[in-house]
Amino acid sequence: MSALSQMSSPYHLSYYYSSSSHKGRDDVIVIDKSECTQIITRGMKECFKLEHLQKRLPIVEWLPKYSWGKLVKDIIAGLTVGLTAIPQGIAYAVVAGLQPQYGLYSGFMGCFVYFFLGSCKDITIGPTAIMALMTQEHVQAHGPEFAILLTFLSGIIIFSLGVLRLGFLVEFISMPVTVGFTSAAAVTIASSQIKGLLGLPGEARAFLDSWINLFTNGLELRLWDTILGVTTILVLILGKKMKQVSEKWKGETPTKLVLKKTVWLLGLARNAVVVIIGTILAYILSIHDIKPFILTGNVTPGLPPFKPPPFTTEENGTVLTFLDMVREMGSALIVVPLIGILESIAIAKAFG
């Protein structure tokens, strides 16, 4: 009688051996339905164990421990970061060659996801100067559709690395590489802001272009833009020092405590303070038809419709397919996700 006919259930997982005297065997592998159910059940239980959930969803770990005492500080931090992210996002959109609203979209959408999945409070979620500069090349050549698709594909690549548990690869990135990248990013970011800081005319799309433009058009700087920009930098540095000094103050009198708390709060919210003051100043001057500063201009209100990224586009009357767009992106599909990972690692190691 065959092995299959001896089975009471067609789902049993086992090996059946021939009764022949030779050493060979007839292997019949079939699946036991009950055992499959048990395996799946065990797997599901493993996936939903608290320690596994805490690794995949950090909010499960920190939310039960959250205290109302942290709420005030978090509100201040949220307002500070949010008010900083608005001009920052607009500036990065301009650097990337996009309309200002694109910087605002990318500046806040990632925060909703990071609320559940984030594990490092110091990570920058949103556009960065390096990413904007790397995206600019494709926007200038092909339009915003390429920037949107590049962003989507970069996110898919980084997400896939996480799902496949390839995060251990970042352990092979040495500290000199991280420090070098951080230093290069700081220099590149500072260079990219020279044109806007001084109100210079001309083009400054790359690192060298920024300095060439400075020496070429340096005498054409806008005085009031320069004063406002330099003053903002000085206020931010002073606010940081004020916060550090206030933390060292001693004294328990009510007046000293109030003064200490006020100085500490102003130092902590320094980014929000300069943004609010700068906005109010520009508004008051503009309603009196006085325009000493270069303003951002009109920003398209509202949110874009929720839809998939463009997998095809039209350029000069020619329809580019998804493969054509990927081919045009070239090495950016590897470099952009890698830069995103390196930026996160550099910040995490610096503040973690």
Percent of residues in beta strands: under 5%
**Could you give the count of β-strands?**
2
Average predicted confidence as pLDDT: 78
Gap from first CA to last CA: 67 Å
Give a description of the structure:
- It is a multi-pass membrane protein.
- The chain crosses the membrane at residues 75-95, 107-134, 146-168, 223-242, 263-285, 329-351.
- Residues 71-351 form the SLC26A/SulP transporter domain.
- This is SLC26A/SulP transporter domain-containing protein.
- It is found in: Membrane.
- With 352 residues, the chain is mainly α.
- It contains 15 helices and 2 strands.
- The chain has a two-stranded antiparallel ribbon.
- Strand 1 and strand 2 (318-320) form a beta hairpin.
Write a concise synopsis of the structure shown.
The protein is mainly alpha-helical and 352 residues long.
Q: Keyphrases for this structure?
A:
single chain; mainly alpha; globular; 63% helix
